[in-house]
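Let us work through a complete example step by step.
Step 1: write down the sequence.
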Amino acid sequence: MTSVTPDTAAVHGTRLASGLGFAVASAVSFSLSGTLAVGLFASGWSPGAIVLVRVTLGALVVLPLGIAALRGDWGALRRNARLLVAYGVLAVAGAQFCYFSAIQYMQVGPALLIEYTAPAAVVGWMWARHGQRPGPVTLGGVAVAAAGLVLVLDVVSGAELSAPGVAWALAAMVGAATYFIINAKGDTGLPPLTLAAGGLVVGAVTLGILGATGLMPLTGSTAPAQYPTGQIPWWVALAVLGVVTAGMAYVTGIAAGRRLGSRLSSFVALLEVVCAIGFAWLVLHELPRPIQLLGGVLILAGVVAVQQGERTTARRDAGSAA
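Step 2: predict the structure and record it as tokens.
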């Protein structure tokens, strides 16, 4: 019987610092993918082809590390086979495929906003499934971070939403929530590197099947990736997408989840949105508007509130158990 790393457990000192460091590294790594992909789109690559190559390269990079981390304990893979399949299908392949499907019907901003309601879903899941009731400060952080996302994604103007697009984006949200919840499972016997490798392998196979069956169009080009700041070889852009935005991002995200728990790590991951805007500003010359900058401040405030709320809840529970 498995359990989830208690989000209410006290997280102090170096564990907190390292967990936050891993979470920030994961968010920054993930955030770079959109900017890199824009240059590949301009040279003729389809979203499906980019994500397939990205996940496959990430799997090839992390797989040797994941095998070494097992230290010969192959039974851990058998015991967690269903967990690995769920992680690869939902958290890796599902989240990305559903997101790209959503933006076929709706704008990128609203689709991202729906997907990034995943942290709220994590809080609700941990409360309903494991009885980890969030405190008022945590709930306040949820509200502040959600308001910040609305401003960062600039959907306050009342953009029209497509029913199929909303459905695909909600499915992507389920995949993202699965990512945070499974990352926080600390008693599976699977090292973080092995979980990342297994998930990426399953995700790559799943995406390959979707491409082979025609459900996910696959087109590519050997033309250089084009950016306002210049161009780079297509293979360089893909290599960074695979090694940094897939391999490194998933490994550090899992390490963060093991140290911080699912709720806090999921909210720190909201920094991905802010970092993505920063990269777009530097590389694509897309200058954020003041309202988006205000949204970024609100997201950071929400992350801090959630962190303080988790620590307050941990002290309260520790006092009740004494």
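Step 3: interpret the result. The first strand starts at residue 225 and ends at 227.
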